[in-house]
Amino acid sequence: MKIVRFEAKGQTGYGIIEGQTVKTISGLPWDGINLTGNELPLASVKLLAPVHPPDVFAIGLNYKAHADESGFKYPAAPVIFLKATSSVIGPGESIILPNMAPDEVDYEAELAIVIGKTCKNVREEDALSYVLGYTCGNDVSARDCQLKQDTQWARGKSFDTFCPLGPWIETDMDPDNAAISLKLNGETMQSSNTNDMIFSCSQLVSYCSRVATLRPGTVIMTGTPSGVGFSRKPPVFMKPGDTVEVIIDGIGTLSNPVSADSLSM
Ligand code: MG
Fold this sequence. Notes:
Layout lengths: L1 E7 L2 E8 L2 E6 L7 E8 L4 E2 L8 E5 L3 H7 L8 E5 L4 E2 L5 E3 L7 E2 L2 E7 L8 H4 L3 E8 L2 E2 H7 L4 H5 L4 E8 L8 E6 L2 E7 L7 H11 L7 E3 L21 E6 L3 E9 L5
Parallel strand pairs: 6-17, 8-14, 9-19
Antiparallel strand pairs: 1-2, 1-5, 1-14, 2-3, 3-4, 6-7, 10-13, 11-12, 11-17, 12-14, 15-16, 15-18, 18-19
The structure holds magnesium ion (MG).
């Protein structure tokens, strides 16, 4: 099942996609899929980020080949950081290169877990039963802030628009064996499979739930494969006018244009 959050005629809501139709639901998807009986053509709605998360957890260095290209040892436990929830945008919305740090803005294709039930101290074998589904994420990162200027990653990972999510939440897939890739202006920059992850989705949900109570809608970004821009020779960073796509088998494609920051101080 594909769960979407959408805007139509000035209203926002949730629905499920069947073919080219959005069947709207009442309430929130983690409270149950209660169809209202209303149907809208998919082409008539604007898809939003499929969830407005109360928290965005993210995992660093969770693909073996990405740890290798970054020059880091494989972590003994998941490396957790947080992204500001205000950085979430939906499919088709612009990633804005911030005036404060426009020069080294990088992409990171990631499988994003969406929690469906309040979750605390869950065992690995039970963890996936707390998951609503999965969506595509882009852990956009200002590398100059993250790697050169700051010791904490919060700033480099949390500029407005730095967390594209979408286009929908897929509830039926194997999250630990899915092809994942990223295209920049149509050229494949990352191509891997979630089976290269060091810590599986169930391990990540269990581990994060031992840190914090994971509330419905919480997103866990599961880390990115190799091929990010800063590790290329020469490095590749995003520029105004670019288009970046995250493609995950079993979910779909999250596409976002890239723009300059038009706001001045
Ligand atoms: Mg990342």
